[in-house]
Amino acid sequence: MYGKSPNDFLVSVVQQIPKGRVLCLADGEGRNGVYLAQQGCQVTAVDASPIGLEKAQKLAAERSVAIETVVADLAEFPIQPDDWDAIVSIFCHLPPTIRAHVHRQVVTGLRSVGVFVLEAYTPRQLAFKTGGPPTAELTMELATLQQELKGLEFKHAVELERDIQEGLFHRGRSAVVQVVAVKA
Known about the structure:
Elements: H1 8-13, E1 21-25, H2 31-38, E2 42-47, H3 50-62, E3 68-71, E4 84-90, H4 96-109, E5 110-121, H5 125-128, H6 142-148, E6 152-166, E7 170-183
Parallel strand pairs: 1-2, 1-4, 2-3, 4-5
Antiparallel strand pairs: 5-7, 6-7
């Protein structure tokens, strides 16, 4: 659905991601998790779709890497405290209360100097109609993320427009928010 190539923003910041245990939220068909495994990370990919994660395992095999996959609803998936060297959230759009809960778990789930990477659509994306959720409530704004991710130090935090070409469903000019944050 979104291609086999990793997200451009993730590729641009991959050197900031530790090579340890990495949790990929809503990893779908695995393009980002498999890419991180190719970079030497120990990846756990979580998604609600068993079909998507089957495709992720096939992609990992094609690329000669291994990833762990977990079928789970993020509203119920426990992110254990101090367990992850990095957590990656690429276009993981959740209802606000679930998103806030997941982001609180992200902060506690990162180990000291752990890194959180996020790219998501902002409400302005609805005007572009080039991908993303159908309602503003499922999008994210930087100010909200800064509140939800208290406890992390933001190294990169911007809202911007950029062209995205990712498979069938992310194509064209897009309004996104990008975050790279570190747990002190």
